[in-house]
Amino acid sequence: MKSYIKRNQRSLKIAALAIVVGLVPVTLSSQNFKLSNGEGKLAVTGTSTLHDWEEVAEQKSGSLQVDISGELPKIAALKFIVEAESLKSGKSAMDKNTYKALDTDSHKQIVFQLSSIKEITPVPSSSNKYKVVANGNLTIAGKTNKIELPFDLTVNGEKASLEGKKGLKMTDFGIEPPKALMGTIKTGDEIEIHYNTIWKK
């Protein structure tokens, strides 16, 4: 009886070891990255009746999880966060109008959360660059909309980059385009988000 129990215990240990060994490649192939705030750039551009404008995000964060074990990488998770009041234009009056339009007293962050990957294709003549179209939820000023986010993904050892641009309308998020000087200067409804972001392990 004792020898039977020992054989069973040995078999269970071998089976457990086989399961763990089988899982190791999957675990190792999944890479986790954090957005580097001090590198790259995320900016919002738009128009007005006076001039074009740009606001740059000074505080951004996020997480990215990529599995590179197959022919094409699999993006398991992606989240962008921009602190709304870190958007700076270089003009304090414009920034003040922006924060009022975004209702930053109540809604501190702008957030994109990945829900699925619609498409991913390799870039010709590049071994680690891919064109991606991601589906996700974008929350601005407290309102969440489903959007498609296009970007180029590059994974190179300890570092990854996401680069692209996305057009949006303020009114789709319940935001009234800011005005200045008693309404004589009006901001256009359409804006464009430009992102060239660096992510590190």
Automatic annotation (TrEMBL):
Domain Lipid/polyisoprenoid-binding YceI-like: 32-200
SUPFAM superfamilies in the cross-refs: YceI-like (SSF101874)
Pfam families per the UniProt record, alphabetical: YceI
SMART domains attached to this UniProt entry: YceI
InterPro entries xref list: Lipid/polyisoprenoid-bd_YceI (IPR007372), TTHA0802/YceI-like_sf (IPR036761)
Gene3D superfamilies: Lipid/polyisoprenoid-binding, YceI-like
Name recorded for this polypeptide: YceI-like domain-containing protein
Organism encoding this protein: Flagellimonas taeanensis
